[in-house]
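User: Please run a holo structure prediction.
Assistant: Happy to. Please share the sequence and the ligand.
User: Here you go; the ligand is cobalt (II) ion.
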Amino acid sequence: MLRQLPTFEDENLLSAAIPFADAGVYRIDDERALVQSVDFFTPIVDDPRAYGRIAAANALSDIYAMGGRPLTALSLVGFPACLDHAILVEILLGGTEKVKEAGAVIVGGHTVDDDEPKVGLAVTGLVDPHRMVSTVGAFPGDVLVLTKPLGTGILTTALKGEILTEDDIRDAITGMETLNRMACEAMMEVGVSACTDITGFSLLGHALELAGASDVLVEIDAGALPVYPHTREMAAMGLIPGGAYKNRDHYLPNVVDGEKLPNEILDIMSDPQTSGGLLIAVAAERLDALLGKLEEKGAKGWTVGRVHEKPAGRLRVV
Ligand code: CO
């Protein structure tokens, strides 16, 4: 958020009290709060249907990161008048598929003429204010679970550079298209301490947000990080998106001994993700229950680290 802008004060604006909240949360009554988020971006794959699916799954993700259930969505579209209208239809069909799968409805939208396609959604959902999950609440002793592999920034950079084809990065495309719905349901059924989704600020940035908001140290086990096929190979070839360098510059000062970290670890940890997984902090005694629930629902989960007390607000890689 831009610091120059005034902040709103309203006792029902629950997200105002949450540092780095994934979505805006507004209480309607004691049992219900609206949870709202918006995101849109330019194409990251060539297949218009896949682009539409990814943009929708990505926009829905912040609702799931807070333990919410999406209800309605509005389409946001920028599209060049010179491009074939059939492409736009394909993109929107991809988005529709994912909104349906989420159990939500598209209630409208708005299209503007633009030099480059841009699509996304503004999503509204519901969350129980007493059960809402956020970046606040991770506790020393908790274990960290990540529900999707990393590497989408590196791989889509390689795709743009025509080093890899869409077939080469099929796993990553499928991963980006996958809703965080099942991961969200699993965490809500088990009960977890904190959660955020991994998007543009990379694992590094989002894990540090969680560390800051929960006032804990986040420890990441670099060897346990899951990555999509070809990610390490492409990173070694220098196919690093510009956003990764921004993330690195911005977040590295908060990493314990960050300057000593090898590039191959930093490249993965600072890679901006599109439609990334949930990073969940769960009490150690509920870890097996969470991993079991994730599997039962067809979602994935990797144990990637743990939470310690100090130095609070920082991240350590082991
Ligand atoms: Co988010």
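Residues 143-317 form a domain with the Phosphoribosyl-aminoimidazole Synthetase; Chain A, domain 2 fold (CATH 3.90.650.10).
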